[in-house]
């Protein structure tokens, strides 16, 4: 086992990997509660979506850990689930069953692109400076998500955002951040994991988090969502596939493709860079990692959930010591066990996970020091890539904006030969996205 996961080469051990896997699970366990709520608004059975979410996360994380050997966990993606429910179903009027078919199609297309090496080629064509910017931008985005979820940052009509009131769960999150910072400053192993545990215990002690009334519950029925993604394909024989061959459905599939492609690419680069796994500015086994993501999306759609993608919260596990795919396997097992212990997950609130996300943000923005800020043609796309992620509340949006400006500034600076041909292709792809899809 140690040899397969390259423990000696990566300087890790079972203890570090298990703690890392547990930390990653705790940081992303919120999806088990959030995803059923969002997809439930689209008319889907919440219990079935809960099971589908756990199974999709477990399957994706297992493939990523065993096949790609990366310490990166997968689960149905935030943002894509909201697009699925509120845009595809509630705005476009597309039945959720057909929406799952769109997710299934996007997954199959990704498998083909991964087999041909297209996705890996695109990732390796991205300039090193922009990879650093993506990593830093995701760090800012993750921090913003954590602060927002905990109520430390709230909406404001005049200024868009402002500080929230420091009371209740928000005060608990602040306490958690302070405790985790102290543990990190003392260089205590597993500081982020310990911070989550201490914050949860304190929250229950002061009645800020409800103490679970039960420990084990029965697994909800998944029959209402399982396999329905294939129904529109099978039923299409009788109606000429009218539900599938239309502009709206094409936009749905393209949006799933676009966001998952670049969210996953950005997450892979950022987490792998943080773990020190990037070699010669390239990501080893990138093709396998991308294939794992494609398989997870396809399997997830069959279980009955929106697009499954790599989770940037995996960086919290890396920060806790994870370096190999074994930690992703640990996370996968915990997602399977979570189906039996769902009541306990109520303890892992946004206030509890906020400290982990903030600390992860601090660690990830360290890549800023590697960007050539003294060169304007590099600084502009790097800065826009970084800043548009939290401001646009989307990793993909930040990547798109930065990648549009990169060939422009490089051409104007007379550095045409340094631009990879694929960057021109991405330039037009992103322009088309903003004009017709976005």
Commentary on this structure:
The chain has 438 residues and is mainly α. The protein has one domain (7-209, 224-437). It is built from 19 helices and 4 strands. It has helices spanning 7-10, 14-28, 31-40, 46-68, 80-89, 96-115, 118-125, 128-149, 168-185, 191-205, 231-239, 247-274, 286-303, 314-319, 326-338, 350-364, 376-392, 395-412, 421-437, and strands at residues 74-76, 153-156, 160-163, 308-310. The chain has a two-stranded antiparallel sheet with strand order 1-4. A hairpin with a 3-residue loop joins strand 2 (153-156) and strand 3 (160-163). Helix 2 (14-28) packs across helix 15 (326-338), helix 4 (46-68) packs antiparallel against helix 13 and helix 9 runs antiparallel to helix 10 (191-205). It comes from Viridibacillus arvi.
Main pleated sheet: 2 strands, antiparallel
Helix/strand/pairing class, anyone? Answer: mainly alpha
Shape: globular
> Are there runs of 5+ residues with pLDDT below 50, and where?
none
Short key terms for the protein model shown above:
transmembrane, Azg-like, globular, 65% helix, transport, 438 residues, two-stranded antiparallel ribbon, 19 helices, mainly alpha
Secondary structure: elements and pairs:
Blueprint: H1 7-10, H2 14-28, H3 31-40, H4 46-68, E1 74-76, H5 80-89, H6 96-115, H7 118-125, H8 128-149, E2 153-156, E3 160-163, H9 168-185, H10 191-205, H11 231-239, H12 247-274, H13 286-303, E4 308-310, H14 314-319, H15 326-338, H16 350-364, H17 376-392, H18 395-412, H19 421-437
Antiparallel strand pairs: 1-4, 2-3
